[in-house]
Write a structure and sequence with these properties.
The structure is a homodimer.
Chain A lengths: L6 H19 L4 H8 L3 H13 L3 E4 L14 E4 L5 E8 L2 E8 L4 E8 L7 H16 L9 E8 L2 E2 L6 E3 L10 H9 L3 E5 H12 L8 E6 L3 E7 L2 E3 L30 H4 L1 H8 L14 H13 L3 H24 L4 E4 L6 H12 L13 E4 L2 H22 L4 H8 L5
Parallel strand pairs in A: 3-6, 6-9, 10-13, 13-14
Antiparallel strand pairs in A: 1-2, 3-4, 4-5, 7-8, 10-11, 11-12
The first copy, chain A, binds a DNA duplex through helix 1 and helix 3.
Chain lengths: 415, 415
DNA sequence: CTCTTTTTTTCGAGCCTCGAAAAAAGTGTG
DNA sequence: CACACTTTTTTCGAGGCTCGAAAAAAAGAG
């Protein structure tokens, strides 16, 4: 806020700018970078020659860019050998780790099932540590230093992204994953909410559509949200925030998994749809495990004939619609992506959702609000984590480029 | 976003930093500025001597600061003669304009009643133009150039802050006040939402309490909100946003002034409290005019005995509580200021509000959420507009300090 | 093989911030 | 009342950074 800008900040920021331009475009020339950053050619030339000599960027003669007259543009690309990062995804009964090079290509990956809900605390932590260790020891890492680990988890994380506070995947709470992994491996770690990482991934995957303001909603057992405002991930001010699923739809309404009543999730989460489709009382204790096949059967039944199944999806749509309407009243409409396996049933949800949203203040232009479905949540999740880790390296480590920092990076470990 | 930082930006930002340090503290020394900005003493010295020679700052020997040994600190203060700004407040049946010097002292002001709801469009605009003209012609302006006009208005404004789109104070819509006034007076103008300006004022009035994240809620005929997140006014992404009063409290519930059903305002606005206290149907058409005395009588009745009046305030509290709970689920709790004449009845609202918020996901620490009441909304409104106008001059005009810009400022008008 | 076009690098100029040292403007003390 | 001490402010040269202009490089066109 009040802190002045010093002379060295200038170089740091402009280095970051150059790196980010290359990361966004995959391959760019110095001329293009000069154009988008509105810095002079001389400056870009100086910075990129520094970055190349530091082994962060590399010239790649692979250009299909300029078939014009004149000296052809030299493509700049990220140097894959500059570093590697790791992503870890921990979700219900599932653990995966991926090692990626600095250019974002997958170097090694591993995933397997495990019974997260029944595991003792120490075993859960142990499995995470073990999978990280195996990936760190993977020969394909080829001696490249690991500069960042990002762990994505369903549930609530703390604001500095260092701990899981609560998660539906385990009864255990307050697990300081970042501290644990940093102590073990001396690599900087953050713990991120899964929906936030999906939003990050959407932004990289389709920057045209998901530019400065958009919403990713995870339709799953529970309801999650990732929110990007003004081009930045909005993570609440203290904890992870963005608990869209626990906005109140009907005061004193249906029983939610969180113990409260009337949350959106208590109408739109898988367990809520299940409960309504089975004509159970809306105060019935939420069921824990509903197989994907069961949900698909429910959706098929709803498509097939009018009945409690169809009504259950209608109620889900209504809850989501009023919730989005309230959200839009606060932040103005934005594109929405419906993510997750249950997004495949969005056709059943959408009519009631649009009908509800049109009756709210946020629904001014309800017909112009666009919904997109992305059934493959795991792919998004991994992609988002990868970009989160890589941009951290870009902005926090390589942009600084001060000798101490680089020295540290050159050793294979960080304090 | 992607734009690089050039050499002159650096000076501009550091100049802005110095000016803002002086504006915040009223009087500061160079040493203090160096401390808070973490810039070197030489830099601060150079910048402040520039600012003094440009007539933006002035040395004021008025120090009660350092009674220590050593050379006494020289106080720096804003030079009142550097410029003047104007604020215009247009609310229900009321119009006011204030001229302030660069240090924020009131130079001239004027206010009067007028029947905004019955006035033809041209008359409403005409009154605003006339009051601005009278203040511009005020001899107390003393030749100082007017560098900014901020007009605050109840209702919805567009995002670039140039037009009033809709307002409860007049049947007319889409009045491009900024363009109209700029054409007339050649001074840059913005049109701001009243609740947003109140939030701005709170931040300046009590920076300890209202720092980076807080909420100002206007309890009045309608319900408005100003939201500050991460130290910045959050104004939605397209239009003015922040329509807290029109979040949905009960789907298909009570009739709101906006024509929809179940909005928070339809339970907590003055007309809603009135409607409930009179045991009218909750779908009864909202009453337009309720005098302040009538509302006070209602509140007194509610304090005196249990009955429909007390129940009406309870319902208002419940609606506000669930609404805040949903809001807090999204953005995490923050201090709340209840602003406006009706905030004087907050004692009647608070119990039900707290009870409701405790039943929401955002109410984790409901007891620690603090509410503050600020009955004098007009004072806040004026103060907020003044700071908005002055900081614009600070950051957009004086921070740049380039010859062209300064030349422009020296002439008494801007293009 | 030479000319034209476009990209990239080189080089000196002009700012800006910084640290160190000097100057300034007081207070305490014998 | 002079002198030492303390703290603030200014001065000055050094070091960095970006910029514009010019030069060099690397093609295609004729």
């Amino acid at each position: 806020m009040t802190v002045g800008i010093r002379h060295d900040d200038l170089r740091r920021r402009n280095r970051a700018m150059v790196i980010s331009a290359v990361r966004r475009n995959g391959q760019t020339s110095r001329t293009e970078i000069a154009a988008v950053t509105s810095l002079s050619h001389s400056t870009i030339s100086a910075i990129s020659s520094d970055l190349i000599s530091e082994g962060i960027l590399a010239e790649a003669r692979h250009e299909q860019l300029a078939l014009k007259r004149g000296r052809p543009q030299v493509a700049l690309a990220l140097e894959p050998k500059a570093a590697v990062v790791m992503t870890v995804v921990l979700s219900l009964n599932f653990l995966a780790a991926t090692l990626l090079d600095y250019a974002g290509e997958i170097v090694a990956e591993e995933q397997h099932r495990l019974d997260t809900r029944a595991m003792p605390r120490e075993d859960l932590i142990g499995e995470c540590v073990a999978i990280v260790r195996r990936k760190l020891d993977d020969p394909r890492r080829d001696g490249r230093r690991v500069l960042r680990i990002v762990l994505a988890i369903q549930g609530i994380t703390d604001a500095p992204a260092r701990a899981m506070l609560w998660s539906p995947i385990t009864p255990h709470t307050d697990i300081a994953f970042a501290d644990i992994l940093e102590r073990e491996f001396s690599v900087p770690v953050t713990v991120e909410n899964d929906c936030n990482m999906m939003a990050v991934a959407l932004r990289w995957r389709d920057p045209e559509r998901y530019r400065n303001d958009f919403i990713a909603i995870l339709l799953s057992h529970g309801i999650g949200m990732g929110l990007v405002l003004k081009g930045e991930l909005f993570t609440g001010t203290h904890s992870s925030g963005g608990e869209f699923g626990h906005m109140i739809h009907r005061p004193d309404g249906a029983l939610c998994r969180c113990g409260r009543r009337g949350c959106i999730e208590a109408y739109a989460g898988n367990y809520a749809i299940w409960r309504n489709a089975r004509r159970m009382d809306e105060n019935a204790e939420p069921v824990d495990d509903i197989g994907e096949a069961d949900m698909r059967a429910l959706a098929d039944a709803a498509r097939d004939h009018d009945g409690p199944e169809r009504e259950a999806y209608r109620k889900a749509g209504e809850a989501l619609g009023f919730g989005l309407g309230s959200l839009f009243a606060l932040i103005d409409p934005a594109p929405v992506a419906m993510v997750g396996a249950s997004a495949a049933a969005f056709d059943l949800i959408e009519p009631a959702l649009r009908e509800a949203i049109a009756r709210t203040a946020g629904g001014h232009h309800s017909t112009s609000i666009s919904f997109d479905t992305e059934p493959d949540e795991l792919a998004l999740l991994r992609g988002g984590c990868a970009m989160r880790a890589l941009t951290f390296v870009d902005n926090e480590i390589f942009a600084a480029g001060n000798p101490a920092q680089m020295e540290l990076a050159a050793g294979h470990e960080m304090a």
